[in-house]
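Hi there,

I know you've been waiting on this one. I reran it after we fixed the sequence typo, so this is the corrected version. Both the input and the resulting structure follow.
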Amino acid sequence: MALMFDPGKQNLMQAAPRLMQILRVLSRHKFLGALRGKNHWPPPKEVRETIEELGLTFIKFGQVLALRRDLLPDAYIDELELLHDQLPAMDIKTARARVEFELGAPLTNLFASFNETPLAAATIAQVHEATTHDGRHVAIKVQRPGLNRMISKDIAALTYLVVLGESLFPRLRALDLPVLVREFANSLNRETDFSHEARSIILFRTALKDVPGLWIPDVVADYSTGTVLTMEFADGERVDLYAKQHPEAMPRLINTLVRLTLQTIFEEGLFHADPHPGNVLVLPDGRLSLLDFGMTGELDETMRESLKLLLEAVVKHDARAVTEAYIEMTSSSEKVNRSALLIDIKAVLYEIHKSDLAEVSIGDSFESLLRAGSRHGVHNPPEFFLLTRTFVILESMIHQLDPNHDYLKSFREEIARLTAQHFSLERIKENTTTLARELERLMCDAPGDTRRILRRIAEGNLGRVQAPVLENLGSRFSQNIERLASAMISCSLMVAGALLVVAPRDTGWHHLAGQAMIIGGIIGILINFIGGWLHNRGRR
């Protein structure tokens, strides 16, 4: 059964004992004095040790804070990045009981063999190697018992601690800490729900099935629940250890890493948010294997398009375009000081372009952008922080695998490949068909929708405005919508035809088809224009 906890639905009496315990730990480490200002903050190392003493939930929260370079000084971020979630393994009796309870059968009935020594043990789960009775080699991820109650109490205590802090020190409200806690609770819900991780694995396998040199272990659904996840076993070596023995293979493997990262981001809106060397294996046949999809991010189509525009604007050194694309990716707010943000972004772009191109870091550039946005009222979405983390970890790993590798060259080549794929004949045909369907639906629905809306307005509190007048207005509005839709269809035919004409191909059929589409678009625009002119002349 997966865990679910909501920071907005916590009982103060339930959280009070844990809250008092947390306050005692914070007081002993002189944390409460930090509320008086930055000059009273405890040293970074003591901050990390305090978080580790508070336990699992706070370790996870510290790891989230480690992403927020816009909130904390670098020294504290560097120390929080040292927080590890490795714990002693739970005893084998507990692990066996957990698996048997979740899967509803004795372990001997479920598996032909079960290695009692875990392969890894972290805060949330540990992994065991096993073999099914039909011979499948699998890895079983078993969640620790009692997490639900412990995390719920900690989330409740953390929520009230933030409220208390903001009440006593109103300047803390500028940090949006309640939003941070809520996003953290949502992240923990996803991470402790193994059915969510199973869905992510299936999505990534589908999205990356055509990437050569990559294999992602599949989910064994019959042996998986919300707290037990069984996958195919990846029998490989950590990529950082493999690099020491096979440095000649690194360019190919790095290009595969870059490709799978960018393809999932821009084509599918998915990304693996924790691509460290422990989650990347090299199989005996030389293929890469990607593991642990507990921490993933998703970008909707709007954010993906804004991200493309953002990267293009950074390359072109266009600060105004960077600012607009960045704001489109974030939550809009009247508090955003656009002029001051533009000045800071100009400074960020200057630092990027004065550097040696080979030393430019996408992750560092995103971090600078996040800092600038937070200073001027931008509420950065959690996906942006995860995306920044992804690039920072990926760049660090690539530098570790091959310090001389031109990472940006791999990045540019993959962007070029994705751009060419985006403008392929198949994609143009698909997009044109989708656009035509949407415009057809708009043309069919607009008149009825408009009349219904205007009828409701007429029946409301609009004084002396009468329904017949509004119906007449709705009819004229609907006709204008129909003409606009027709013009958009004609223009889309012309654009698609032009792309077919200029597309490099060995055969000439696409040139003829493109010319026909251009002519059809021109005729459609002329008919639309003449129809509108005759209609206006008739009215006069």
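Quick highlight: The CA atoms of residues 292 and 503 lie 41 Å apart.

Best,
R. S.
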